Protein: Sulfurtransferase-like selenium metabolism protein YedF
Amino acid sequence: MKTLDCRGLACPQPVMRTRDALEQGRPQELLVLVDNAAASENVSRFLRRSGFEVSVNQPENALWEVHGLSSATQVEAPEQAPAAAPAADTESRKTLVLITTDTLGRGDDELGARLMENFLASLPELGASLWRIVLLNGGVKLAATEGKCLDTLKQLESNGVSILVCGTCLNFFNLLEAKQVGETTNMMDVVTSLSLADKVIRP
Structure:
């Protein structure tokens, strides 16, 4: 069994090390050691997408053991850059919304919170082009704080909108366990999402 010690590595290095290990020669079993829950989630998700059965053990406070066993599960195809489409074909376009704060605008936080509620509530107006919402920095608080914003995000996710929530940011704000919506992710996935999007909206 191949073992990767990724403790002490910043996001997205644990996922990148895991990817490199698979590219160098797909092992039947792989054990990845990480030192935070966000890295554990990210590595686990990557291995599952790569066709591994995954189990996670936490023998110590700052140690997660992510064990991957190669299975016959079909590997999930990686996202590919979309082919060029006619400008009028809006349903095939991918719009990504990048949110980096839990309020909208500057001047007054209470007003900014209300504006963010209104902004999120207006996103369904984008129709089928609304593809993904990425929450970074203070924006991750929206995925972990009870209120209208969280309710709206849950509704958007249930309607098929992908929501990615930065794991490093959740760790920083001690919100990893409080997250109620979206998929904990890493910067490699964020960069890939930005490159795949036809349009990026940043309020």
